[in-house]
Amino acid sequence: MNWVIIGVLMGVAGTLAMDLWALLLHRLLGQPLPNWGNVGRWAAEVPKGRLFHSDIGEVPRVSGETAIGWAVHYGVGILYGILFLMIVGPQWLIGAPFVPLWIFALITIAAGWFLLLPGMGLGWAASRTDNPWRVRGMGLVAHTVFALGMWGAALVFTT
Fold this sequence. Notes:
Structural class: mainly alpha
């Protein structure tokens, strides 16, 4: 199978794993589900030249913002799947060791911490949230789950 297609499948599987993890935390612990509408609203504002907001909730709603948010979420996951294989090379698929993928997935949290969260008014690395260290820790766990989902797909589609 073409390595780009495998990268796409890895990205989808990793993102799906994150979503299932969020659903599990919601059902078992009552943790709120991610608000993909806010992500979509933020993404819709970027082409207008507005990257950072003091509070994305104060920005007028955008038609289809939840669908846009979901598309951005999965699009970024797919991009990361392809980007990872571009960085390590398709030969990584032979054996597919977990640690390089895990390190990559943890590094990708920087986009959320230093672009998305401040862009939505939540501060650098969630500094404007009620419990920044909890948000950061949960993000690192979610990105570990993302890596596990990507790794599982790599193993399934290369054997």
